[in-house]
Amino acid sequence: MALQDMLQWFDSSRGSDNAFRRALSQDSYSNDSPDRRENKIAIFDATNSTKDRRNLIMQTCKDHCKQAGTPPIGIIFIETICDDKELLEENYLYKIRNSPDFEGLSEEQAMEDLKMRAAKYEERYETIDDDSLSYVKIFNFSSKILANNIFGRAAKVIVPALMAWHVGERPIFLCRAGKTFADDFDMDVSLHNVRWNKGSDGSLDTTTHRGGQFSSMARITSLGHEEASGFDSSSHSQRFVQDRANKRGTSLDSVGDRFRLALAEFIANEGENFMERRKTSLKGLGTGTSQTGTSTVVAGIHADADTLLKSFTKSGSYDFSDEMQEIMKENNTSLAIPLFPCYILTSTMPRAIQTATWDNLPFQMNHVSNLNPIDKGDFTGLEMQEISEFETDWFDEFSLNPFTTRFPGGECYQDVVSRIESIVIEMEQQLAPVVLVSHVSVIQVLLAYFRQTPVKDCAKIEVPMHTVIELRPLLGGGWQEVQHTLIQDEGSDESQSDEG
């Protein structure tokens, strides 16, 4: 029945008017819901552990599409295999200690029950050996992947995602870059003192105010003054906007620097807590190759995570063993070693890099242009409120469909989704804390992913300034979100900037 429901759901997503579609309208979904019409992927989670069962799925889907006159449904089987006894024991322990299925049982009773279930399952289990199928086999928690007949987007996104996902407990911290001088109202040319007038030729006229005196270059018709002779309003507007855009990428101001220091202290505390929690339950804190294995790279040192964890003390410092001192000697380093491993990602914007620059935590930063704010093209340097005042037609279109409405000469939110897919996979695969410093548009997309909400509505998500958004994986899937406001600045405007 579940399989038939899934197939009918596919029909509803293609716009067919059937009984299932009408049934959806009676609950939380409406007939006109774009999500219902445009979804193209379903996960059929069931015990498909025999050849007969898999053949039944293939034939049922084929017959349904033929009867409905719809395009074929592509099917990929995902098989997870674990034959490492040590890994199995660890996984069993994790399950019985965290699953409600074993409440009221001792650990020994729960382990016996679980192993009995696994033995019954193995009696009927048949591995996939039909190479005419599309399938992915995952061995021993992604230590090996076998992909067969996987092409296109499935190879680009699904396979890397399957390799990245894991059940390890590690926090992810998201935050905007700190406040910069360009965000202050007393900048040389403040857009709060600018009036935009759209001319008949489509060019933009500006009225600016500098220290109480109006610029002689500006056309100030709205104030009753005569036009400046020979003034090229379009050229001046473009220079003005570019000047604003350039200033936005400058240094952190005193408030932004306060946030930078508060963020360093926050991450240090969270990292030490992470090390203490994971000291007895985690064998590896990083990913590597066959040569580095699960080594952790800290301050340029490759050290096995076991060694690093053994050296960590409850006082939040390291008592280095002879083994660790030998590793430091081999690496020929005298750098101070952070108290914990941490993966830092920032955009290439100076304000983001500065926000994640901490003298007492010398982590290696990864500057990635994929994390830069949405490219506004011709509107670079302007806030949405300002754009709405002089480009009303475009703004009306954006208001109706912010996800796919592209900034002239720039990007739309859908483009941002495409360029941060690899970032999501990179964050998911980490086994240690992740800190990401970026900007509103990027964090909106990321929050839609971690909250499991429609990405088409991501433009509505609030991303507060000087706040760390903490995400922790939950048992059974999903993420728990907690927001930490690190500083309060009553004297400045911390509203949601489109590029902050």
Q: What class do helices, strands and sheet pairing give?
A: alpha/beta
The total count of strands amounts to 15
Instruction: Specify the overall morphology.
Output: globular
Radius of gyration: 28 Å
The number of helices is: 16
Low-confidence stretches: 15-37, 184-234, 282-302, 312-320
Assess the beta-strand content as a share of residues: 5-15%
* Mean pLDDT metric: 74
Instruction: Describe the largest sheet.
Output: 6 strands, mixed
Distance from first to last alpha carbon: 49 Å
| Portion in helices | 25-40%
Major beta sheet, strand line-up: 12-11-13-4-14-15
Task: Characterize the structure shown.
This protein is of the alpha/beta class. The protein contains 16 helices and 15 strands. The strands form five sheets. Strands 12-11-13-4-14-15 form a six-stranded mixed beta sheet. Strands 1-2-3 form a three-stranded mixed beta sheet, with helices on one face. A two-stranded antiparallel sheet has the order 5-6. Strand 5 and strand 6 form a beta hairpin.
Task: Furnish the topology, listing elements before pairings.
Blueprint: H1 2-13, H2 19-24, H3 34-38, H4 51-68, E1 77-81, H5 85-98, H6 107-124, E2 135-139, E3 144-148, H7 152-164, E4 172-176, E5 195-198, E6 204-207, E7 209-210, E8 213-214, H8 233-248, H9 254-278, E9 295-298, E10 301-304, H10 305-311, H11 322-330, E11 343-346, H12 350-355, E12 365-367, H13 384-390, H14 392-400, H15 413-428, E13 434-438, H16 440-451, E14 467-473, E15 479-485
Parallel strand pairs: 1-2, 4-13, 11-12, 11-13
Antiparallel strand pairs: 2-3, 4-14, 5-6, 7-8, 9-10, 14-15
